[in-house]
Design goal:
This protein is α+β, with helices and mostly antiparallel strands. About 30% of the residues lie in helices and about 25% in strands. It is built from 4 helices and 5 strands. The chain has helices spanning about 15-30, 40-45, 95-110, 125-135, and strands at about 5-10, 50-60, 65-75, 75-85, 115.
Length: about 150
């Protein structure tokens, strides 16, 4: 465990330099193949009423972790996804990931979602353990993907 930090989970509705820089620092820690999003992309996400960007913000303004909650209304139900859950390596093991996931679950309930889903790479054992501890269960499914 690295530096101790106290955070507050906040929904990001306006994108500033501190948030953009925090996301740019965190995204490579989530996936080495992913590139940091532009400020314009982050602003589009913040403006989208179906998307809710959450950040673990330290007292000094440091962005220690992030996730995005997406609410989807379809004919059969209202579903939620949480994506890109990542906590800065130097702050891991302090409950920040749990706080982000817990807030995402609360917001999904508040939005009327009947379920919340996420995906996690099998190599991310600590993250998978966290999700199980937060009440998520692994489901048997086949994911199809088409790159555009």
């Amino acid at each position: 465990m690295g530096v101790k930090i106290k955070v507050k989970i906040e929904e990001i509705t306006t994108v500033d330099n501190a948030f953009s820089e925090g996301v740019a620092r965190l995204v490579p820690q989530l996936s080495q193949r992913a590139s940091a999003p532009s400020s314009e992309r982050l602003e589009r996400i913040a403006a989208n009423p179906s998307s809710h960007m959450l950040a673990a913000v330290a007292e000094d303004g440091t962005i220690a972790g992030i996730t995005t909650l997406i609410i989807t209304e379809i004919p059969t139900s209202c579903k939620a996804w949480t994506e890109d859950v990542v906590v800065d390596e130097k702050y891991r093991g302090q409950g920040i990931g749990r706080a982000l996931v817990t807030r995402a679950v609360e917001m999904a309930r508040e939005c009327g979602a009947e379920q919340i889903m996420l995906t996690s790479n099998p190599s991310r054992t600590a993250a998978r353990k966290l999700y199980a501890e937060c009440g998520f269960s692994e489901v048997e499914t086949t994911l199809f993907r088409l790159f555009l």
